[in-house]
Protein: Diguanylate cyclase/phosphodiesterase with PAS/PAC sensor(S)
Amino acid sequence: VKQAGRNSYQFFSSEMNRLVVEGHRMKVALHEALNRHEFELYFQPIMDHSSQRIVSMEVLLRWRRAGNELVSPGKFIPLAEESGLIIPIGAWVLRAACQQIESWRRQGIEVPRLTVNLSMKQLGTKQFVHDVITILRETGVRADCITLEVTESMLAENTTDVAQKLHQLSSLGFHIAVDDFGTGYSCMALLKNYPIDLLKIDQTFVRNICADKNDAAIVIAIIAMAHGLGMRVVAEGVETPEQLDFLSEKNCDFYQGYLFYKPQPASDIVNSLRRSDVF
Ligand code: C2E
Ligand code: CA
Ligand code: CA
Ligand code: CA
Structure:
């Protein structure tokens, strides 16, 4: 018994060691990733099901590391946040998204609004609004072509500073969405202090919506509250027709998920649009 315990301890510590080393390597590589042009944007349509229109597309970051390994943001965004690299990376994402809009326009493709994820560190920088305006000027894209996604926990943090910035951004013409709604500290009371256009219901509630009464009740309540506050609702992670039917019966406004489209690179997304779906 003692022997086994010792082995499992050794296994555990060498596994931890491996993870620490890997995390460190990734951090070093992440530092170089911007210079090496290793980031790419993927795009995932958000649907208005009743009209079959694509109302917007979420911009999702990918990291193509040397050797062609595609790293998902769940792995590297936390490291980028921890090291502060999320600030230049986030600025790169917004600029690249605006450049993509302009590039599609030059090809005669009128794309819908793009929706871009923000992290707390980014929004927390003093010059955030100024930096965003600079990117719009540089690229010639109007603010009303972009939705900015903040998470629920960002609203609960330093509220006056965040509120002030979001009001500035909203009056510039940006739409504001609250991402992963329902998973953070609940800040229902705070919602009314912010200029919010959209709530995005987290996929953890959508997953079992047809089977789990509690998830269903939460989603129904979120939709009612959002509509009462003049906001619209996006359901994330919609994978089955049953989930779609359920949500649409409850008057959810928009849908995002593999049932419609997976996230894809810019070069693929326009070609892969289903015939009946239009921007
Ligand atoms: P998120 O903002 O909640 O984005 C939605 C995630 O759900 C994406 O994962 C998307 O690929 C995935 N997804 C979409 N439809 C479905 C579906 O039907 N089923 C399932 N199971 N998943 C679906 P992804 O692309 O791996 O991104 C993960 C997270 O990384 C994002 O979650 C977001 O928090 C963060 N992220 C991505 N890009 C950026 C970025 O440019 N900046 C920042 N700060 N965060 C980003
Ligand atoms: Ca998001
Ligand atoms: Ca989300
Ligand atoms: Ca999420």
Observations:
- The chain has a mean pLDDT of 91.
- The longest strand covers residues 53-65.
- The longest helix spans residues 2-33.
- DSSP finds twelve helices and ten strands in the chain.
